[in-house]
Amino acid sequence: MDTATLDHISELSKLNFTPDEKNVMLAQMTDIIELMDTIKEYDITYDDTKDHNEVRYDDLRKDIPAPSFPTEKLQQNTSPRDNCYVVPKMME
Amino acid sequence: MDTKNITAAALRRMLDNKEISAKEAASEFLSEIKTKDDKILSFITVTEDEAMRNAEAAQKLIDAGEAKPLTGIPLAIKDNLCTDGIKTTCSSRMLGDFVPPYSATAVEKLIAQDYTLLGKVSMDEFAMGGSTQTSAFAKTKNPYNTECVPGGSSGGSAAAVSAGFCAAALGSDTGGSIRQPSSFCGVTGLKPTYGRVSRYGLVAFASSLDQIGPIARTAEDCGIILNAIAGVDPKDATSRDVPFTDFNEKLGKGVSGMKIAIPKEFYGDAVDEEVRTAVMNAAHEYEKMGASLVDCSISTLKYAVQAYYLISSAEAASNLSRYDGIKYGLRGEGHSFDEMIRDSRNRGFGDEVKRRILLGNYALSSGYYDAYYRKALALKQKIIEEYNAVFEQADVILTPTAPTVAYKIGAQDNDPVKMYTADICTVTVNIAGLPAINTTCGYDKNGMPIGMSIVGRRFDEATIIGTADAFERTFSPVRCTL
Fold it and tell me: Edge-to-edge strands of the sheet including B43-46?
């Protein structure tokens, strides 16, 4: 893996690394991708007609409105103000 | 009460016969936790008050003759299963203060039995790892040798059961996370068929592979807990309505006439000699009991770790994208929305979680998707075909659970490839969605437990529980001396 690729997937992952962290991560990800690359040796093609059998689409519950969790219980994990989630002001 | 040896089944009898009260049982386990857990760090949260309240409620039912199989039985819960009003950290700084507003369905089903909750136990961060050393809060140690890892990711669950801190525990298994720590800690752990237990309320890692299951001292106890937590759930569209009566229906019936498959690829050089020998000795023990051994092959094993890490990391990258620090989880700082999200994720996630997210996004990104992710899905299909073919000629499959016994803490630090390839014996079972149970089959020259896995057909947990039980009846476990 090269630095540009690591930068690209870090961007996709919303992760930042310091230069030192990036060097370590680059070495480790290169080793990991080397291991993953061996999968290319195996000559096989995915047959998407065989898949998607784990989810039941024929027995979905009816879409009936029902009471949800109390607001104060959902907001116990954040610092709400006036029943709203507070985030930084976005001025770009 | 001998907390290291008491089974849930035996404790049930003691409670029902009034040889011990539910409060006394809870107190004995809590006392063990208080006096000894500083040596192995298996618990993140001990819920003493909750435990005593649960025990009091359970006792009323016992006194009224209305006890269910788990009423008053003290259990621990892996810290990635949501517990209403009780901190659920997933061993991550990201969820360090997270208090769920609801309980997982599996936990609700235990509550319906009036179990006693002793606390939440440690794990690898977001269940990513096989050592419990990626935990941000409690790097659990092995009760047999505190210089060694307990395995993972359900290392806290397995270590707590092994050390006698609880009668049993719930864990979760995405690539071996119930079976491998059970093997390392000398206890019995069951990974049910994918879809057998609702995943609602289990913090998602890889949704097509994750499954909740019990870790206990015997196969019988695993069956008792599975009886309680199994079943279809409208809140989990992947849970299946496959009827069952009693997962322990084959206890004590032996293995006479059964065919046990031995896939040669699981017994190669990657597996330690002592492990191979112990598992093959167990296979010959089954022969003496009247089973026959069948040679077979799972040729795709060579690529299984790669397929597993590509699929699970792709799903993890997607699942963990929800952690942005806004509605819950660690809130980072920044002048903009983007800076805040990045700071939350940089500070909230540990290195292993970051590696998995990077790998997942790499495998899913433009230009790599077909070469990695679709190829891994193709291998998944081939692995399922190979297992189906084996089950045409055998009732169960017997393999080592891990290539080695528990290794020294730090031995795999900063070597993710070594860590990943150590999952070779367990990942195919998750990829194929099969049930499997680990039970102890021996000890190495240093007294560390060796585990074997019995793999069954989809939704045939009763057969693997019965097969493990048959061996356990002939085997004398050596408990840890913690």
Answer: B43-46, B116-121, B74-78, B168-173, B211-216, B188-191, B436-443, B449-455, B396-400, B259-263, B292-296
User: Token pair of B179, please?
Assistant: 């079976």
How confident is the model at residue A55, as a pLDDT?
A: 60
Q: Structure tokens of B18?
A: 């009034």
- Cross-chain residue pair B357–A15, CB shorter than 8 Å: yes
Which pLDDT does position B254 carry in this prediction? 97
Whole-angstrom distance, CA of residue B304 vs CA of residue B300: 6
pLDDT digits (tens, 9 = 90+) for B222-252: 999 999 999 999 899 899 999 999 999 999 9
Mean pLDDT of A14-27: 96
Q: What mean pLDDT is reported for chain B?
A: 97
* Contact in structure between B26 and B55 (CB atoms under 8 Å): yes
Does A57 or B49 have the greater pLDDT score? B49
Per the structure, the count of domains in chain B is 1
Quick one: chain B helix, strand, coil %, rounded to 5? 40, 15, 45
Q: Concatenated DSSP letters for B89-139?
A: -TT-GGGTT---SS--HHHHHHHHTT-EEEEEE--SGGG--SSS-S-SS--
Determine whether the interchain pair B359/A87 forms a contact, defined as Cβ–Cβ distance below 8 Å: no
Q: Distance between CA B299 and CA B296 in Å, rounded?
A: 9
- Continuous segment of H or E residues that includes residue B219: helix B219-229
Residues paired with residue B202 on neighbouring β-strands, in sequence order: B81
Give the model confidence (pLDDT) of B121-166 as tens digits.
999 999 999 999 999 999 999 999 999 999 999 999 999 999 999 9
* B279-320: pLDDT as tens digits: 999 999 999 999 999 999 999 999 999 999 999 999 999 999
Residues 6+ apart with CB under 8 A from B65: none
> Distance between CA atoms of B285 and B97, rounded to whole angstroms?
49
Task: Quote the radius of gyration of chain B (alpha carbons, Å).
Answer: 21
Residue of B nearest to A34 (CA): B417
CATH (domain of B198): 3.90.1300.10
**Of residues B131, B157, B162, B177, which has the active-site annotation?**
B177
* Structural domain that includes position B109: 8-257+459-472
Whether residue B312 is contained in a domain is answered as: no
Query: What ipTM describes this predicted complex?
Result: 0.93
pLDDT at B373: 95
Give domain status of residue B329, yes or no.
Answer: no
**Does some domain include residue B405?**
no
Q: Which of B95, B138, B311 lies closest to A51, judged by CA? A: B311
Q: Across the interface, do A28 and B355 touch by the CB < 8 Å criterion?
A: yes
Chain B residues near residue A39 by CB distance under 8 angstroms: 303, 306-307, 310, 372, 375-376, 379
